[in-house]
Give the backbone structure.
Amino acid sequence: MTITTRRVEYPADGLTMIGHLALPAGDDRRPAVLIGPEGTGLNDFQRSRADALARLGYVALAFDINGGRWFTDPEEMLAHVTPLLADPDRMRGIGHAALDVLRAEPRTDPDRIAAVGYGTGGAIALELGRDGVNLRAIGTVNAPTTGRPGEAARIRCPVWAGVGSEDPIMPPAQRDAFTAEMQTAGVDWRLVVYGGALHAFHHPPVDQTVLPGVGHHPRHARRAWRDIVGLLAECLPLTHSAMSPGLPMS
């Protein structure tokens, strides 16, 4: 399917964010997906996720969290991301700003939006849910984070989370806390643990120094992408005529 893409700039978190909007062919309204990046920010691979979803027939916005920066230094990235992850209101502000851009797109059906995120972007997607945003689904990879007590009860859609079994950043205790929060809140939740996978297993290797416990797992990366596409097919279905094969994400 032919798609069109464009760069979108918008303010959030005191920064000028630079997102990537991908549109399927046609001029009709479509279900839409907000896609959050890892803490390193947006690169071509992360933008390609929006392109892949547009080829499936969705309007897709890969949103920014770093003001257009792609961090190559892990320590610099952590210095930026760690305080953000500790501040739900900041995360919600970033998420709402991106959501406003997506809703303003004429091709977007504002009543049919899902949020998908990786790492920090996944935490932001969850905070939108905890803030009561009307989403059809929330999907996260390597981001089963917990929120402020009681706020998960505001989540109004199914939540899917994927995590590597060997992820030191999201160890079993963190996963247990996440599932307990979802269960207590009565959320329709699922957690998939990918055996042998590290943190950021979904992202191909890049030419930069990585943190311990981070590594690519191509097989599980493809499986996680299929699981996310399956979540969208279940909760945000497209008409048969709108669907077109997407790209495998590895």
Q: What stands out?
A: Strands lie at 3-12, 15-24, 30-36, 59-62, 108-118, 138-141, 159-164, 189-194. The chain has six helices and eight strands. The helical segments are 44-56, 74-85, 88-104, 120-130, 172-185, 218-235.
